[in-house]
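Predict the structure of Spermidine/putrescine transport system permease protein PotC.
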Amino acid sequence: MKKLIALYVPAATLIGYIFLFAPLLVLVIYAFNAGRSTVVWEGFSLAWFAEALRDRGLRAGLQVSVIVAIASAALATMIGTSAALAVVKRPFAGKNLFSTLIIAPLVLPEIVLAVGLLVATVWTGVPLGYGTLIAGHVLVSIPFSFLIVRAAASGLDPRLDEAAADLGANGKQAFLRVTLPLLAPAILSAFLLCAVISFDNFVVSTFVSGVGSTPLPIQIYATLKSGLTPKINALGAMLIAVNVLVILVVMSRYLKTIRKQS
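Done. Here is the predicted structure for Spermidine/putrescine transport system permease protein PotC.
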């Protein structure tokens, strides 16, 4: 039985990785296709990469997505971090209710949040645009930053704040010199995750984006209505390359930190 389990687990893991990454591999391969088909190979070419870079709609959508992802991730991380520190370090009435309300968007259908935000926007007379788009993405991202930072803050020794106070540090100095450096990896992880969630968001963006603030996922969807070409594959391949590059940079710094500590 143990031998069977020992064989099954690696095989199941391999099948899972193939299931996850095989579509990405096919997408990248057909980005270099010379023809217009995404299923029939007609030769090697880089023409679709140039075509994707020349597409004004895709470039504008990419710009909107990057701006909104950075802004919403920064806001969501600040709000989530503040809420997590309040829950972990400060006793107050209704703490459990407060935590439940913070993570409520995780269990609510995203389309319900999007419709609610659209109704609130129309009722208040706020024009659709960057502001509503960022607000919607912040609403969706806050639970993730809150959970990540709360888990890290819960693992901190509460005596560190007491030691900092004994050495003459006030609350602000203790936070900036003790708590914040220890939580920096978790805060960075929360920021990156929120940025990815915002960049990939489609449902909320569909309801709260306005003229001139159409993000990349909606631009891609609009392009697909006129037919699927390797131009979308080329754009996806470039985004995958950027993601891999960011992961390699982060991992290299993480490995350097581990080596210094050892």
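The domain at 54-261 is CATH 1.10.3720.10 (MetI-like fold).
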